[in-house]
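Why does residue order matter? Because the sequence determines the fold. Keep that principle in mind as you read this record.
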Amino acid sequence: MLRHDVFPAAFLSAKIATFDRLGIAVIAILVPINAAAQGVGIVFKLRYGTVFMIDACVRRAERNTKCLRCILQEHNLLTLSHNCLAGLSASSVELLPVPSIIDFERRMAALGKPPNHPMMSPKWHDMSPVDSFAIMFEVDGQEIGGVAARCLDLGEDALAKHWQETYSRMYTNGETSPVSGFSGAASREIRGRVVYLGELFLAEGWRKGVVDWRLVFHYLFALSYLKWRSDWIYGFVRQQDVMRGKASRYGFTRQYVGPQTWTKCVERRSSQEYLVAISRQDLFDAAAFYSASPEDLRSPAT
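Structure:
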C-alpha cells in the first residue's frame, strides 16, 4: 500500500501531472508489497525512448524531488540537443561524430587546418572515445570543418594547477614553463570534471554565415554533460573575437580576460586569449530556458 507519510498522494499526483506536461509517459507506479520496503517507485519513459525509474525504496519524498530534478534537467538537455540538431539540419548543416581524434586531425588537415594544439594532440595524449570525441561539420555531403572535446577529471585540483603541471612538458620540452602566471578564475573556481573544447575550424569559403555557432555550441555543451556529467566546459577565444561578441554568441556564460601570461613565444597561443567557460548550473539554466523558448536559441546573425 502507499504510505502517505512517506510519499503523499498529492505529491505523487503533482509529479505525474508534471510528467504529462513534459511529454513523459508514466509506465507504472510500483507500490512495494513488503511493508518494510517504504516508499514507491515510478517507471516512466521520455519521448526519446530512454526509460528511467525512481528508486522504489526511498524514505522521504524530498529524495524523490532531487531525483525528479535531475531527470528533468536531463530532459531539458535532450530537448536542447534535439532542437540544435534540427535547427542545423534545416540549414543543411549536419554534425558527424568522429570517435578517433587521430582520424579527426587527418580529416581536418585535408581542409587546411594546422595540426592540433598539444592540449588536444594524439601525439601528447592517449585519447579514446571514453575521454574525447570530435565532430565534423558537413554541408550537402561535403565536410567543411569541425571541433573536438576532451574530458579531464581533475578532482579537487584547480584547472590552473593542471595547466602549470603540463605546459612546460607540452610547449617547451620540459624546460621553464612558457607561462609566468595564471589569473584567479582558473585557480579559484574551475575544478572537477572539466571538458575542454578546441580545434574549431572552418575551411575557406565556408566562414560567412553558413554555420549557426549558437546551435553548434549548445549541442556540444549538452553532449558533453550527458556523456561525462561535466562540472565545467571551457575553451579559449581570441580577444578580437570576444570583442565581436563571439563568446556570448557561442553560449559561454563566463569570460575571463588574461587567464595566462605567456612569456615565451608559442605558435597560436598568446596572453590576449580569453578563458571562456560555462558551469554545470549555468548549462542547466540555459537548457531550461531554451527548452521552453526554442525560438530564442537561434543566433540573430552568424
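The longest strand covers residues 142-158.
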